[in-house]
């Protein structure tokens, strides 16, 4: 009996030894570099969370290439619920769980999360926050892989100019994000010589927007610049059609022009345009798009997917360049891997290879060159999309910096003038 | 142009009025504020969506069926949840109804997801009716609302059920002594009130789209209508609904569209300062 027990014990010990030998390798590999995802998956901008598969796909690519500095990346995902309190508690939660970098959140909540990231010494890269409030903030801990709303708003005015618009109405909700774009469009219209003949700010979550629509559109503008989530958008477009006011106006929206809005508002929103972050239609993008569609099992590329992909690659490359997964290492290397000079790379694997050779690298993102300025901002390309079928948003063209350049510069000049006047 | 804004106020008011009547009657019979009312409105709208968009039934028939189905949900709520809490403290009921609101909303989110869905009926243009401006679905919604008020008055005044509800609402113990079955009356009250929630929720859904948060977003306005009209008086609540609808839309007419919801609450606050029990308090 004792011999049998001893045999079992020895057997068990051998098993443990063998497992721990293999485990030795695995343990070294399984110390993950944790990255916090702080994005909305519910609430008014819950559609932003649809970009998560792109981030996950980037992580899988990094891990398939041997991980960042030999460490696999794991994501800690939290839902901001499109609220400030949700974003703050989400950021605290991911930092408390050991995240060494944060991806997110959106314009609506980023300014609440910024001090938390800064105090924790953690780099935060937002793939979605275009707010102009960040145009002169950030650059040490806070970065963006999406253009400022100054670029997007200029693109929206460019679209109106292309359509030959002479008059416009502004129809935006009362949020920081909307106010940011609205300010750009006001100035953009001034630059492009488009008269603003109606403007209403509205409170989200109402049963009726008829009064607001009538007030904004009663002077029959050629175009309506707008921003609305799907919940209000369904109501707004239906009530616009039933009202019959400015029936021929063309609606030009922001990055809120997406599939959820389409589903909530079709067919009343037929013909509406959206000008939003989006890459040029290169072979690289087309191949990536096919991969992502297969990965998520659905057609279409959710808004901010390319920006999220870029954010994740930059963080992974910064870890690789640092040689260890630490928040200090990421901070020290974010600019080095994203900005020139260096060998241009388009994937984590390429970057890893060049870094191993001792070369500097310059990551070229899917959403455009990811060259951070002193405020941590980039200028990416824009896509123009439209609602022309009930199934998906159709991309019709892209705008580069040259296309929107004069409006963009004009807006910046007006802003500078305004600041100078204020200072005086 | 002012006629247009009045029309918008009448349409919104018609919806608020139906909701406020249900809410008010429920307060009168149960004695507590049912904070899950907005979410039962949403549930009604989603049920209408199933009948209309998924089963292909006419939108008005779907509205009626949804009201009845939501009424039965009201009965279930009474029998499964609230019957056991008779006489519970106000704070307990407050927490219970808030919890129920979250449960219903998350249940709807689980089934239909966070994005809006649309009832299937044609979007038709509006036309002038004198100085007013409506389309046919809006006129039908206002007529349904008025019909509901009249039917409600008839039920409450002339039927045994209505008299029983009023008696239990006034003094449940006395009603029991007089041989009125409390549970039967309460079953009817829950059926009617939550049925009205389903009806108003579907009306709300017809105005644009149906989404899991829509009823909750309107709940405070329905409460305001109830308080403005007079706590415990369903007829006052109905009038309160129209006043809230008209006042908020007319605020937009003077160029203050962004403050129209705040204006509705401000009106309620002013009225309560002058008449603390509302415009038409229950006797």
Please supply descriptive tags for the structure shown above.
heterodimer, A: 424 residues, alpha/beta, Rossmann fold, 2 domains, 7-stranded mixed β-sheet, 5-stranded parallel β-sheet, 15 strands, 47% helix, B: 283 residues, mainly alpha, ABC transporter involved in vitamin B12 uptake, BtuC, two-stranded antiparallel sheet, 11 helices, globular
Main sheet attributes: strand count, strand direction, barrel closure of chain A: 7 strands, mixed
Kindly identify the CATH topology of the largest domain in chain A: Rossmann fold
Write down the CATH topology of chain B: ABC transporter involved in vitamin B12 uptake, BtuC
Give the quaternary arrangement of the chains.
heterodimer
Which percent band covers the strand fraction of chain A? Answer: 15-25%
Integer-rounded radius of gyration of chain A: 24 Å
List how many beta strands of chain A DSSP finds.
15
Report Rg of chain B.
18 Å
Number of domains of chain A: 2
Mean pLDDT of chain B: 90
Question: What's the number of helices of chain A?
Answer: 14
Quantity of strands of chain B, as a count = 2
């Amino acid at each position: 009996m004792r011999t049998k027990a001893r045999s079992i014990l020895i057997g068990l010990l051998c098993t443990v030894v063998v497992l721990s030998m293999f485990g030795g390798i695995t343990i070294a590999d399984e110390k993950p570099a944790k990255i916090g995802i702080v994005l909305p998956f519910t609430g008014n901008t819950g559609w932003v969370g649809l970009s998560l598969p792109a981030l996950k796909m980037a992580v899988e690519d990094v891990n398939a290439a041997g991980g960042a500095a030999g460490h696999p990346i794991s994501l800690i995902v939290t839902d901001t619920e499109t609220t400030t309190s949700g974003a703050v508690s989400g950021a605290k939660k991911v930092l408390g769980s050991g995240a060494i970098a944060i991806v997110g959140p959106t314009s609506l909540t980023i300014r609440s999360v910024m001090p938390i990231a800064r105090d924790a010494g953690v780099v935060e890269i937002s793939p979605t926050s275009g707010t102009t409030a960040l145009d002169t903030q950030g650059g040490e801990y806070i970065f963006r892989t999406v253009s400022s709303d100054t670029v997007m708003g200029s693109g929206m005015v460019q679209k109106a100019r292309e359509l030959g618009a002479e008059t416009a109405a502004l129809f935006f909700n009362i949020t920081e994000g909307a106010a940011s774009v609205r300010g750009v469009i006001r100035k953009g219209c001034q630059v492009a010589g488009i008269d603003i003949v109606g403007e209403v700010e509205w409170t989200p979550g109402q049963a009726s927007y008829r009064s607001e629509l009538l007030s904004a559109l009663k002077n029959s503008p050629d175009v309506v610049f707008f921003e609305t989530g799907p919940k209000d958008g369904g109501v707004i477009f239906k009530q616009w059609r039933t009202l019959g006011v400015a029936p021929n106006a063309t609606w030009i929206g922001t990055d809120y022009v997406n599939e959820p809005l389409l589903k909530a508002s079709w067919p009343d929103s037929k013909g509406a345009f959206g000008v939003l972050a989006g890459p040029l239609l290169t072979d690289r993008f087309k191949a990536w798009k096919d991969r992502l569609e297969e990965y998520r099992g659905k057609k279409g590329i959710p808004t901010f997917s390319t920006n999220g992909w870029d954010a994740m690659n930059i963080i992974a490359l910064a870890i690789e360049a640092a040689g260890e997964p630490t928040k200090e290492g990421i901070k020290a290397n974010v600019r080095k891997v994203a900005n020139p000079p260096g060998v241009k790379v388009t994937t984590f694997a390429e970057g890893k290879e060049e870094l191993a050779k001792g070369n500097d690298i310059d990551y070229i993102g899917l959403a455009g060159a990811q060259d951070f300025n002193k405020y941590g901002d980039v200028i990416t390309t824009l896509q123009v999309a439209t609602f022309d079928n009930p199934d998906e948003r159709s991309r019709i063209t892209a705008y580069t910096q040259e296309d929107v350049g004069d409006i963009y510069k004009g807006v910046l000049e007006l802003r500078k003038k305004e600041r100078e006047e204020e200072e005086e | 142009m002012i006629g247009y804004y009045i029309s918008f106020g009448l349409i919104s008011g018609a919806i608020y009025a139906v909701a406020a009547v249900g809410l008010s009657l429920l307060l009168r019979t149960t004695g507590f504020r049912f904070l899950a009312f907005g979410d039962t409105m949403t549930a009604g709208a989603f049920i209408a969506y199933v009948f209309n968009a998924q089963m292909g039934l006419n939108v008005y028939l779907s509205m009626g069926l949804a009201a009845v189905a939501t009424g039965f949900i009201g009965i279930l709520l009474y029998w499964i949840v609230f019957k056991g809490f008779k006489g519970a403290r106000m704070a307990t009921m407050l927490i219970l109804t808030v919890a129920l609101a979250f449960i219903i909303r998350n249940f709807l989110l689980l089934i239909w997801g966070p994005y809006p869905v649309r009832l299937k009926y044609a979007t038709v243009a509006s036309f002038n009716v004198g100085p007013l401006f409506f389309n046919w679905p809006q006129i039908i919604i206002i007529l349904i609302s008025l019909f509901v008020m009249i039917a409600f008055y008839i039920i409450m005044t002339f039927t045994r059920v209505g008299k029983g509800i009023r008696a239990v609402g006034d003094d449940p113990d006395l009603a029991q002594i007089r041989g009125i079955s409390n549970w039967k009356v309460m079953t009817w009250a829950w059926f009617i009130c939550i049925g009205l929630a389903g009806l108003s929720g579907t009306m709300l859904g017809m105005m644009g789209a149906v989404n899991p948060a829509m009823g909750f977003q309107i709940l405070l306005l329905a409460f305001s209508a109830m308080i403005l009209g007079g706590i415990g008086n369903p007829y006052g609540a109905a009038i309160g609904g129209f006043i809230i609808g008209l006042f908020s839309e007319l605020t937009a007419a003077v160029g203050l569209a962004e403050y129209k919801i705040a204006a509705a609450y401000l009106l309620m606050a002013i009225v309560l300062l002058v008449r603390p029990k509302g415009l038409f308090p229950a006797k």
